[in-house]
Amino acid sequence: MHLQPILKTEQLAKLHPTGERPFLFSEVDIEVFPQNSIALVGASGQGKSTLLRMLARLEQADGGAMLLHGVPSGQWAPTEWRKRISYVPQAPVVLPTTVEDNLATVSKLHRTEFDRELARRCMEAVGLGHIGWSKNAAELSGGERQRLQLVRSLLLRAEIYLLDEVTSSLDTESKDMVERLLLHWCDSEGTAFIWITHDPEQASKIGKRTWQLAGGKLHEVSAPAAEDVK
Amino acid sequence: MSSFALLFTLSFVVVTMALSRWQKLGLEKDIAISAVRAAVQLLAIGYVLLFVFRTEHPLLIILIIAIMITVASWNAGQRGKGLKGIHWRIALSIAITEIAMMALMIGLHIIQPTPQYIIPISGMTVGNAMIVAGLFLNQMKRELDASRGDIEALLALGATARQAIQPSLKRAVKSSMIPTIDGMKTVGLVQLPGMMTGMIVAGANPVEAVRYQILIMFSLTSAAAITSILLSLLTYMLWFTKESSLRR
């Protein structure tokens, strides 16, 4: 039986913001399947973040089409789309309230029950088990905020996560913990991840597939050369 | 005030122009034009009001209030340049505020339904609503610069545009109301408001003048809240694209 992709794009394109060349990228045809963990690599300024933001419909495409479960993006309400394909930015954004309120954001937004036990397990898995939930999230360090933001997003239980260098502020130990959690989540929940990374070691560790964005084109590569990742 | 005394008020304009020239501010032309405009506009409205007060025709009162709202919404709308449909949204917010204020004041027999009361009080209500609308739009611009990441983080969690922008709207509404609330705290201690001063100078009993001033202060506070909240409800989608992503 042919496995249906969760997300498919056809000839996706974005115009270059400064016009130094016509397109930032074009002809992007991708398919993302359940349990895919994809490393997205490429030099800075190639449009990796823009591509992820477009996939999350936070930014408008200038051409092409996106289909979620075979249904064109225009037929999905943006909120329903983003519940299934969630973008996690590099710069951590936490609400200026308690850790608990941050963790409960998704349940408040969508009026669902707050899965406290899952939140606790995720917090422990990323090394934040010791953090008191009554603490103001704004007082956490950059690395702690980055992990809290990630856990908060995971509680959405999206089908695809678009991770924009989400371990950039973490030490090696914390980075390993996050990678282990996400890979476990990928295998056990069937969730797909697309990670932007500039770390060749991380790209090879987390990427079951690797995409390289260079010169305005996206190519699937088996194993990226270290200089392509950086 | 005699016509001679009125003529002597020009000395204040001359002082301002002289200071501008001395300090090389380059404002002399602006000051002269503004002073002529202010004098002509005020004298004209004085004669218009005289006519309206004599005829007491309701349609004339409505026309004057409609002009006030149009000018106010056009002026406040300058703060929201680039936002499609901002002018009619401001006009609607101010109009609803004005109707609510007048309905309460006349309905509760606080003022008499005559042009002498309706027009000046409407002028103050609409003028204050215009300032509040301008402050709200200014603050929203700052909010969107400063809180872009927060709004997008909530959108990325599947929040609706309204849910994502709600904290920013709340801060902008609050910030647009603060000057009115602060004005209430210091009135009588720091400043004697124009309307009250005008009544006293014109020979009214100061206590009677204060009573009207209290009415104005209280009504302006609720007018500020109504305008700002209505505007937040009517405008929040303007900051988003059809895709519910934030406009650049």
From TrEMBL, chain B:
It holds the Pfam family UPF0014. It is found in: Membrane. The chain crosses the membrane at residues 6-22, 34-53, 59-76, 88-111, 117-138, 186-204, 216-239. InterPro entries: UPF0014_fam. It is a multi-pass membrane protein. It comes from the Bacteria. Its main location: membrane. Keywords: Membrane, Transmembrane, Transmembrane helix. Belongs to the UPF0014 family. PANTHER family: PROTEIN ALUMINUM SENSITIVE 3, UPF0014 INNER MEMBRANE PROTEIN YBBM-RELATED. This is Membrane protein. It comes from Gordoniibacillus kamchatkensis. The lineage of its organism: Bacteria, Bacillati, Bacillota, Bacilli, Bacillales.
